[in-house]
Amino acid sequence: MSSLKEQIVKNSNRIEEICKIRLWPNMGDAYRWVKALKEGKILFSGKGGYIQEIEVGLKGIDWKGKHLDHPQWPLTLNAFSYLQPLAEVYKETGDEELAYIARSLIEDWIDSHEPYSPDRPPRYGRDGDSTLGISVRLGQGNRPGWWGTMATFAKSPHYDEEFIKKMVDSTKNQLDCLCANLRLKGNWRISHLDCILYCSLLIPGFEQYQAFAVKNLNEVFNRQIQADGSHEEHTPGYHEWMWSIFARLWYLSQAYPELGLNIDTEKTARMWDYYIYSITPDGSSAGIHNSHPWSKGPGRIKVIEEREEFLKAAGLSGDEWSLEKNPSKYFPCAGHIFIRDSWEPDATFLFFDATNWGGGHCHLSKMSISLYSGSRMLLCDLGSFDYDMSNVFGPYAKSTPAHNTITIGNMNQTEANPYTYKADIFNEAAVIASSYEGSYFPGTYGWNWPDGKGPGIFGIHTRVLLWLKKKYALVFDTIRSDNGQNFAAHWQFPAGAYKLDAKNGRCWTVGGEDNVLVHCIDPQDYKFVVYEGSKDPLLGWQADKDLQYKPAPMFSIEGIIRNQERELVTMLMPFRGDTLPDIHVEKYGTSDIARGLKITMESEEDIIVYSSNLLTHVGKVGSVESDGSMVVISFKKGEITRVILVDGTFVEYNGEKIVENKKFGTYIFNF
Question: Distance between CA 64 and CA 352 in Å, rounded?
Fold first, then answer.
């Protein structure tokens, strides 16, 4: 008869074979972890903005986490995520010291704790642990923990039957506690249930937990995973976790239908899509909400290949699922719009943030725009700096002024959802329109508003985006508030050099292989300022992959509200090298209901005619007449090459009807 260890290894290998979602360990980071663990230290990114090595030892560890005053440290200590790098390096080297370290840490945890029970769940303040800690510590489909690394260490003499039986007994107590104290909502609930099912499939004698886990996983999939595939928290970094869980469960449901898992195939496919579309072209995080800040990625989006395997297994095909035919996508439940010109690593990628509030992991960043092009992030979303909100950089990274949007009085938006009333996306152009109408407040937001929102002021920000592939984007902002209120449009550049041309309302990055120009089209009486590492006001900061804070230039276009409203037009233009593109922008007529711009670039020219917020027809402006709310006419060497008509049926130029469609809508006509 097979030993307990042999049965668990067999079960683990079978699950890994079925569930094709692979972990992509960074072996450089893994060796860094191993070096620290051999010295009795654990790496932690926390207060102060740098990686700390916390000395804990291998025996007699203070599992309450009194080594460091930071709310995330006890979770890091008790979650045992550091077993994964140990296992990866052990797999590569066979170094028995690593198996010894793994056993020592697990055994010390067990010996240091009274057995958990249904009526005694762990509490942060009392134990330094939590029910989330249980679920990550024991292991899940994508977070190995004790049991996910066990098959790797099983060949070691340190993982003998006596030790494994000790792990099983402790796991039983922890699972009983988890089942009795299941979180009602959020990612914790999914984490709890994934752990319960995972352990029930691995450990002989734990089958009795399966029905409970499956019933609740079916419920939570239908409740938390939305119709567009996004997880309800609307935070890509957390969606990645949820996607990896349910993608694995889908494979399990196909291999073991008798389990009763009801994981909808098309919704699961849309989970893949949301995850992939949210990744920058180089395969990194775009820093959206409480996701990791952007850092140089591996150069490609690895999971695209896994998605193709999934689609094949799921029997999904056709244009709807073609990434090549759909490089850009709107996820309406999340309120996220991802635009890119290709799936190549050097593509241009733009994110429009019209987030529908998803809870504490969201930032106050409505109408923000992020831009990646060529080789780096050029207009940056900061991601999460610190989960400790007593550190000023924690709430700063979540604040409205830290994002590429409008702030009134350097104050925060609220959780109020925006109204996105246009998302016309084509492969060669996109037109987006959304409005935030929740006013602005001076309170500090961390995980909540600890001192309240404070006395707010009326404020509405409507933003229209026009994106033209391989050219530029135009941002049309309308800001409404009380007369005399100060407002600013912030644009966060990456750390590094820049140039400011305040006279002409322009600022651009220099020194990188790829750069960006931000140009206020009509400078009027605006003030143009760059904040870089400013502490009063707190503006112009970034964090790197190790969460080290560093100054980074923020271009600020600042003005004052008059007649209860101001309009601002800004060009965003990525370019290669340090030489600014030869581009000329001038006004092209105006009327009571619409305005026009003419943009000239070498032998090409664009005429753009638009109504305020795209809410009326443009009528006649200059030589252009249309019943649409926006018209773009592109020329090359004087000849019309393309017409974009937004919400209309015809366009006339110089008195001649050049395009017409009897059905009202948005169209692109190529000549």
Answer: 41
Among the listed residues 376, 369, 372, 449, the one whose alpha carbon sits nearest the alpha carbon of residue 414 = 449
Residue 92 has pLDDT above 80, yes or no: yes
pLDDT at 47 over 60: no
CB 605 within 8 A of CB 585: no
Separation in Å, CA 432 to CA 128, 390, 528, 613:
46, 37, 26, 10
178, two tokens: 């988890």
C-alpha to C-alpha distance for 278 and 209, rounded to whole angstroms: 35
Residues 6+ apart with CB under 8 A from 279: 236, 285, 286, 297, 301, 303
pLDDT 10s digits, 519-535: 999 888 899 999 999 99
Residue 22: the pLDDT is: 60
Q: Are strands 498-501 and 538-539 parallel, antiparallel or unpaired?
A: unpaired
Asked whether the predicted pLDDT for residue 179 surpasses 80, the reply is yes
Contacts of 615 by beta carbon, 8 Å cutoff, 6+ apart: 629
> What pLDDT was estimated at residue 481?
97
> Are the beta carbons of 214 and 258 closer than 8 angstroms?
no
| Structural domain spans, the chain | 1-184, 329-578, 582-671
> Which residues, 6 or more positions from 610, have their beta carbon under 8 angstroms from its beta carbon?
464, 466, 476, 594, 595, 596, 618, 629, 630, 631
* Residue 503: band (very low, low, confident or very high) from pLDDT cuts 50, 70, 90: very high
Packed helices 96-112 and 83-93: angle between N→C axes, nearest 10 degrees: 150
Q: How many CB atoms lie within 10 A of CB 494?
A: 20
The whole-angstrom separation of Cα 392 and Cα 480 is 29
CA dihedral 108, 112, 118, 123 (to 10 degrees): -100
For 277-314, how does the pLDDT look when each residue is reduced to its tens digit (9 = 90+)?
999 999 999 999 999 999 998 887 878 999 999 999 99
Task: Tokens 């943009």: give the residue.
Answer: 599
Comparing 34-48, 228-242, 308-322, the range with the smallest average pLDDT is 34-48
pLDDT in tens, 137-154: 999 877 889 999 999 999
pLDDT score of 142: 75
How many CB atoms are closer than 10 A to CB 114? 8
CA distance 549 to 541: 7
Q: What is d(CA 374, CA 380) in angstroms, rounded to the nearest whole number?
A: 14
The tokens of 530 are what?
Answer: 């760059």
Domain 329-578 has CATH 2.70.98.70: yes
The answer to whether residues 617 and 648 touch, using CB atoms and an 8 Å cutoff, is yes
